[in-house]
Amino acid sequence: FPTTHRERERERESEAQRHTATKHTAEHTISSPIATAALRGSISPQAARSISSEGTRATMGAKASNLRRSMSKGAKSGNDEALMRMQLDEDILQEAAAIDAAKRGVQGSTAAAPPSAPPGGPHVEHVPLNWKRGQGGHKPNDATRRMLHEAGGRDGVAKFTNLFYQIAFQDPHIDQFIRDHDDPHGDRFADWITEKFGVGTPWSTERSTRKTCPFHAHGHKFESAHDRSSAHFTAWHSPKRSEEDFGRHFKLDDCRVWMRLHFWALRETGVWAQSPSFAEYYLKFIGHFVSIYERTATLFVRESARWSENPANCEKYLANGRRMDNVLGLSLREACKALPDHERDSVGDWPYC
C-alpha cells in the first residue's frame, strides 16, 4: 500500500542509520541526547527507553522492560517499535523540553491571537501544516493562533474535547483504554491543543506540577500518566483490557474508532461550523499526530471525519450498542477498500500540505 510522507521520511532515516556519514547528519537533526545516542548505536533502543530527561521517561522504559517477559515475541517487537517511535518523536521530545522549561519557571508565548478574518460568514483558509522534519515538531504561527481564536480559543476547544470524552466513556471499545473517568481528560486535551496552536503554555504548566499515583493492572504496577507518551503507555496497559490485549499498542481499528468519535464531537459542538478553517487544519494536525501510534491511520483521517457528516451513521452506531462492527477487526487491505483512490494513494502528500 502507498506510504505517507512521514513513513517515507522514516524509511529514509532507517536507511541512513546504516551509513556512518548519514548518521552524523541525523545526529545533528535530532538534538536530544537520547535520540542521538540511539542513532549512533552507542546505547541499545532498550537502554534509550530507560534513560530519563528530568526523569520523565524512566518509569515508562522500566515498565516496558518488566512486561517483555510476559509477551510473545511478535508482541514484544511490535510494542518495542511503537514505544521507540514515541520516545524519538520530535514533537514528544519538544514537549519534554517544554515541561522542563515550565519547571524552571520559563514562560512560553502568551501573545494574543491575531484578529480573525473580516466578517462575512465562515470560510475555509487553507493553511499548510506547519511541520517539517528537523524543526522540532509542529510549530504554531500567526495562522494557527488566528484559527484557534476563530474556533473560540481554549474554551471553544474544551467544548469538543470534553464532549469527546463523554462519548468515549460510553464506547465499549475505546473505554477499555481509559482507566479513570475522574481524570480531567478533556481539559488536558484542550490545554495541549491550545499550546500546540501557539497560545500560552497551559499544558506544560499543568504537567510541571501534576502528581502521579500508582495503580495495578494484571499483576503489574504502574504510575499514572504524567505526559503524552506515558498516557498512551498506560492506556496500552489499562486494567480494563483483556489478558490477550493487555500491553498491545494501538492498532488501526482502535485509531479509526477514536477519530470517528473525536471528529463527531468537533462537529456536534458547532466548532467545525464556527471555524471551517480550524477544522480543515485540525484534520491535518490529527493526521500527523496519529501516525506516531499507528502509521497507517493517517490514511483514514478524512474518512473518519466524513463518517459523522451523515447522521444516519451516528444513529446506526448508537443502535448497535455503540460498536463499529464495520471497523473493528478489519485488516488494512479490507479497510482501504472504503477509501477513494486519492486518499488511499496519499495524493498531494496529505496531511503535509
TrEMBL record:
Residues 43-56 have a biased composition (Polar residues). Residues 1-78, 104-125 are annotated as: Disordered. InterPro entries: Globin/Proto. Residues 1-18 have a biased composition (Basic and acidic residues). One of its GO terms (molecular function) is heme binding. This is Uncharacterized protein.
